[in-house]
Specification:
alpha+beta; 5-stranded parallel sheet; 18 helices; globular
Amino acid sequence: MASERADAAMNGSSNGVLDDQVPDGPMADKWQNHKFSMKLVNPNNKRRFEIIVVGTGLAGASAAASLSELGYRVKAFTFHDSPRRAHSIAAQGGINAAKNYANDGDSVHRLFYDTVKGGDYRSREANVHRLAEVSLNIIDQCAAQGVPFAREYGGLLDNRSFGGAQVSRTFYARGQTGQQLLLGAYQALAKQVAAGAVELYTRSEMLDLVTKDGRACGIVTRDLVSGEIEAHSAHAVVLATGGYGNVYYLSTNAMACNVTAAWRAHRRGAYFANACYTQIHPTCIPVSDEFQSKLTLMSESLRNDGRIWVPETMDDARSPDQIPESDRDYYLERKYPAFGNLVPRDVASRNAKTVVDQGKGVGPLRNGVYLDFAGVIAREGKAAVAAKYGNLFDMYERITGENPYEGPMRIYPATHYTMGGLWVDYHLMTTVPGCYSIGEANFSDHGANRLGASALMQGLADGYFVLPYTIGDDLAGRLGESVVPLGDPAFTQAVAGVTDATQRFLSIGGTRSVDWFHRELGKIVWDCIGMERTREGLQKALSEIPALEAEFWADLRVPGSGATLNSGLEKAGRVADFFELAKLMARDALVRAESCGGHFRTEHQTPEGEAQRDDENFAHVAAWEWNGPDETQTRHTEELDFEVVALTQRSYK
């Protein structure tokens, strides 16, 4: 433990500056009472304020549409050619809400409890309770927009189960829920664009946050087609730019997903919280080739009906249909009888790794486990299974050449979601006044592990129902203030900095591509900061990442110019930020000498191999302050108070 205390000392200490802005009062009443106590901007005054929204996925599109509907003047930015390309479309399985349509005992309190427990007691209770409350409104909003949720025979919206819950609260549209929800948010945004209330910038990437007198006042962007670098001014900036899972190179994220917008805000003073909290999704198609560029997610909804198993003996080369029931190990059902195959993602992932490490892996590379639908097909028929999962089964067959109706799928964990992100208070404001962060880009709701079907819930909650209230509380006190003019030194210096950084990448003139460096970085991060972390492995990462980073700046080759479309230049900036993020992830994991949720330190586990928290020393958020490119960030803490949910050893048995 002395060495771990030294790790903490090496990485800075808290000076107690974090104020979470959580209101007083009973948990169930906090949000409703606080909405009344916040300052308002009257409808005629809203048009005097300009707001920038960066990112147009579920969180960003819903925020931009809602804020403009209220009367604010909004600029929305996306590096895609259309908001419909946002990675939110990849969320397949569903969206949680405590409607209790299944009449199986669900409630706002149960959703709140399951989320706090699922996050291994490392989330802020007040934010989670608010999320559970507004989940009720999200479904009504989306259904009114025409989102084609699945329905029962009688016409009521259908629900299914997801990991970490013993009730059915997940609303879904086959295996296309994210896409359908995004289309709903997109049409709301498109309506406002057509009305002139939102100015939409496509193929435009944010490369810096501009601040003046410590307050966010705009952004600097690069047009990805023309190469033009521009500044944009506003009274407030909202970052809705997703997570940083692509730091691992191989992940379920779209190839363009990155941390750059959030990281540039971090460099301008926004604290970055819980960087080591990353989620490994248990239901992905295993790696099939050394040169694979991304991994494919198979929806967690498949675990409702699919049974996960491996052969009882090591290196069993028989095809699955030749392995009798007596020679199969349904290891999740055996170890966790109460939840079975629907344990949370972190638990399912670690157990899959364990059996594969034991030599029981299946497939050509022995790097997967089976997800078997023979039982449900025999029980309900192929047509019924196809109605629920048909597009997922088709996708699996196109990728693997294997028919999951005739034999089991092969799955293995892969990087998927990040619970860490920019620190925000109860109002979703970062430590830079005037800069907000919503959706996966912030840290606030999921603790150390996100339950399935909660990402879509948080993105829409923040965009539709939380930020439109909280942003007004800040702007009301700024009535009459003009935006900072683009000729101000704050903007000219930021534009010059982005221009210089662009030229630096182009002038290195090395021999290796940005993809090579990204792949090598991903290997280090996966090996040392992946499903299992050790003190030695994290220290190794803190040695190897800076060495590779130095090579990156010395030997990177970016062909072409900055005055045109240049995908290599885009990637270079993103990978440079990944290098800095990876170092912070390792430091954050090294200091957090406990196991919780997706952060599993092998030195800290129960005799049964489960995550062992240290509530005495680590029941807090770790938020890191940028001190400059050559300095280690300072670690601050926000203590977590558990008023309602008692801290206990998490169990799904």
